[in-house]
Amino acid sequence: MSKGMSHFILVVYSNALASLILLPTSFSFIVITLMQNCVIICVRYSSPTLASAFANLIPAFTLSLTVIFNFISAAMPFVFAADLKGYPSEIMLVSLYCLFGSIESALVT
């Protein structure tokens, strides 16, 4: 103990902490994306007319809901949060990278 903490232990602890923080976040983004993909697949199987009209209705429906519930002024500070929701696979990749980095570091030590 007089030498202090090993550098390998520090790497293991930091990767484990990053995995614990990022992994639940990435799974929440995957569930949202999975549900959206299931809806799109179900619409494709229903009818071609509905499938072609569905993509055009999404922005109008979203705008209608924001006007009805007055979310436009409340949503302005979170414009950049939409970019984060657009890239859930990168967040999942980073969390898996941290998880497997923790496992490899634990095996080395």
From TrEMBL:
The keyword Transmembrane appears for this protein: yes
Keywords from the named record: Membrane, Transmembrane, Transmembrane helix
InterPro entries tied to this protein: WAT1-related (IPR030184)
Gene Ontology MF: a single term: transmembrane transporter activity
Top-rank taxon: Eukaryota
Record field: transmembrane: 20-45, 57-79, 91-108
Signal peptide: none
GO cellular component terms, semicolon-separated: membrane
Protein name (record): Uncharacterized protein
Species whose genome carries this gene: Gossypium aridum
